[in-house]
């Protein structure tokens, strides 16, 4: 047995993925975990808000069009929480023309389909440096 211990899970960045399409959640979660991230998921904004209050993420990736609470409403709700103003938020949609993004405080908007390499690069760019 070697003296090298596995990396601490808490040291890995925690990403919150929010989408009402289970295939997207499953795909993103699997790929992001393979790239060294911890992942929590939610099927709509209200679920995501509750999960974020239980376990604060390092970054949020959210669809815009979802039932219960959409991505724009989630973004506003997260921003109102302690620490929410500095939380990196990526919003995604296949129909950006259906959303008024001008009043949203998200960090980045990506049009679906999102290329995974681009998503990885943007996550790395937006995440705060780890100490």
Automatic annotation (TrEMBL):
Residues modified as 4-aspartylphosphate are 63
Q: Name one Pfam family in it.
A: Response_reg
One of its GO biological process terms is: phosphorelay signal transduction system
The UniProt entry, under InterPro entries, shows: Bact_response_regulator (IPR050595), CheY-like_superfamily (IPR011006), Sig_transdc_resp-reg_receiver (IPR001789)
Q: Where is the Response regulatory domain?
A: 14-127
UniProt keywords (A-Z) are: Phosphoprotein
The record's section on SUPFAM superfamilies has: CheY-like
**PANTHER family annotated for this entry?**
RESPONSE REGULATORY DOMAIN-CONTAINING PROTEIN (PTHR44591:SF3), STRESS RESPONSE REGULATOR PROTEIN 1 (PTHR44591)
* Official protein name in the record: Response regulator
Organism in which the protein naturally occurs: Herbaspirillum aquaticum
Starting at the broadest rank, the lineage of the source organism is: Bacteria, Pseudomonadati, Pseudomonadota, Betaproteobacteria, Burkholderiales
């Amino acid at each position: 047995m070697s003296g090298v211990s596995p990396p601490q899970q808490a040291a890995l960045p925690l990403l919150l993925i929010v989408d009402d399409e289970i295939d997207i959640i499953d795909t993103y979660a699997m790929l992001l975990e393979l790239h060294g991230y911890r992942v929590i998921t939610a099927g709509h904004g209200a679920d995501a808000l509750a999960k974020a209050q239980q376990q604060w993420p390092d970054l949020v990736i959210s669809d815009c069009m979802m039932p219960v609470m959409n991505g724009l409403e989630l973004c506003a709700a997260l921003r109102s929480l302690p620490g929410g103003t500095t939380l990196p938020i990526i919003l995604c949609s296949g129909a950006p023309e259906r959303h008024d993004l001008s009043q949203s405080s998200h960090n980045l908007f990506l049009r679906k389909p999102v290329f995974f390499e681009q998503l990885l690069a943007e996550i790395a760019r937006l995440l705060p440096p780890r100490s």
